[in-house]
Each structure stands twice: as C-alpha cells, then as structure tokens.
Amino acid sequence: MSEGPRFDVVAIGNAIVDVIAQVEDRFLDAQGLAKGVMTLIEARDAERLYGLMPPGVESSGGSAANTAAGIASLGGRVAYIGKVRDDQLGAVFRHDIRAAGVHFDTPAAADGPATARCLICVTPDAQRTMQTYLGASVELTAADIAPEIVAASAVTYLEGYLWDRETAKEAFLRAARLAHDAGRKVALTLSDPFCVERHRESFLDLVAAHVDVLFANEQEVISLYRAASFDDALQRVRGQCDVVALTRSERGSVVVAGGEVHVLDAAPVPRVVDTTGAGDLYAAGFLWGLTAGRDLATCGRLGSICAAEVISHVGARPLVPLRELATPLVA
How far is it, in rounded angstroms, from Cα 17 to Cα 7? Predict the structure, then answer.
C-alpha cells in the first residue's frame, strides 16, 4: 500500500431503525413468532406488529451499522455504506450514525420502499426475536459502493444479511474487488443461521474466494458446513480464510489463523439483559484491535469486552465509551 488508510473499517449492510420492546413468551406465542431468530416480513405485517408491541426503545440499528458505531466508540476511524429512503426514519438513521462518529454519505433514495425497520421482542431470558422489514435497505446497488471509501479503508466489513438480493450481491462483490485491488482486507459476518440456510452455497464460494476475516457464531458455522458438531465445523473452516473468529455465547470465542488457535473466555456480565447486537459488538472490538495491529488473542478479548457491555442493557449500541473499557487491554 502506498499510503495509510483513511479509515480503519468501512462497514456495508442493511440500514435499519430498531424498535426494541420487552415482552413475555406468551406474546411471541400469540403472534406465532419463532423465538430467538430473525424473520423477514412485509410492510403491512410490520405495521400490524408494531401496533401490538408494548412501548419500546427506538434507535438506529442494522448489524453492520452497530459494528461501525462500536468501532467509533472505541476511537476507531470508521465509515458506513447503506441505503435509506428520504423519509422520517431515514433522517433519524442518518443523524444517529453520524452522531456516533461514523462517516456516512450514501445518498438517500427519493422513491421506492420506506426506510427499513426491525421490530425486536426481548423476553425475560434476554433472547431477542426479530421481525425485519428490509424496505429501502435492500435497494443498495453496486453504484452505491463508493470506491474512494473502500480503497481508503483497511478493512471492508460485509454484513451477510444483505446477501438476499442480486443487486446487493453485486455490490458486495464490487466492494471486495475494490478492497483487494487497493491491497486492503475483506471481512464478512454470516449474520444468522437462517441467512446461512438460504445462501449456503454462495456463502461458501464468497468465503473461499473473497473473504480474509470471517465472523460467525456456533450455529452459523455448523450450518455453513453442515457439520455434526462445533469441533467438526472448526476443522472445516480452518484455512478457508486468513482469520476466523467464532463466538459461542457464554462459552466465549475461538479465534483461528493458520496454525494459531485461541480459546477465549467470555467477558463477565453481572446480568444479561438483551443479547441484541452481541455479535455486532464482538466484531467491532475484534476489528478495532486487528486494524491497530494487536495480536489475535487480544482482538478476541476486545470483542468479548464490547459484547459484554452491549448485552448488559437494552439496545444494540454501547451506552458507555468502549475505549474506556478497552484501555486496560491495550495500554
């Protein structure tokens, strides 16, 4: 690389406004919602469910956007690419992500579907059940991928949720090519087991051909390789890309790179309130450490610290500056 990157990370994903409410399990049963997973819904279903949910917290979200906000909270230089409509929720999303310290200038759509929203029901066991209307977010195309931003970012981070539309796949592949042409790295999060089920073969091709750093949880990596166990999946994914970071909830994470294997404990949490955003913030801490040149074990511990903060409260973005929590590890 002839010059250093302007950004540590550029994150690309679905630009979504989250609506988070605390519910009992009987609410999920009454609405026929599959607990603990993300389900895609249409606009009219989103309106109906929103009307039935108890009062909640509304905040800008989206998996990759949450990761970007986490990196900014750590003091990292981060940009975001995602599509919103020029409506009220689109303005809220733009304001919130910029206020978090993230560079965001993707043009809003002047017509078409409304800005995306995710209706998140959190049960007393801290599990989150997500009903997502993708709206304008999936209208992202290759034309929205700013080559000067990708080329100026040490890592381009791709959100697996965006892999549903052909135009979005083209955007991903363009971003990956631009990053590698500039001598940069490409990272991918698999996002959700059902996402993996829908796109297993194309994800396998994407990982093998374009991804340098892979993030997945235990269920996702087992699903990707149709493995019999986590250990089986771990052996299958080794060597597929430079670095693999696999999260296992309260059992911590496993980071693999070449001959290195790091088994890391989860960071302690006094009380788990809401698991929304745990994987997103793990990726934030890990990528911040990686772009700062930290060793892989430290990167994993940074991810665990960030994930622990976000699951200790309602909402998928940190409530305290993550840099303060990370300082003991990097001082």
Answer: 24
pLDDT at residue 60 greater than cutoff 50 = yes
| Cα first-last separation, the chain | 28
Q: Could you give the count of Cα atoms lying within 13 Å of 284 in the half-sphere of its Cβ?
A: 37
CATH class of domain segment(s) 7-330 = alpha beta
CB atoms under 10 Å from CB of 193, counted, come to 20
A 10 A CB-CB count for 71 gives 33
Give per-residue pLDDT as tens, 72-111. 999 999 999 999 999 988 998 999 999 999 999 999 999 9
Largest CA distance in the chain: 59
Cα 231 to Cα 227: distance, rounded to the nearest angstrom = 9
Tens of pLDDT, residues 247-275: 999 999 999 998 899 999 999 999 999 88
CA distance 133 to 136: 9
Beta-carbon contacts of residue 29 (< 8 Å; ≥ 6 apart):
none
Confidence check: pLDDT of 157 > 80? yes
- The three-state secondary structure class of 321 is coil
Whole-number Å distance between alpha carbons of 301 and 164: 32
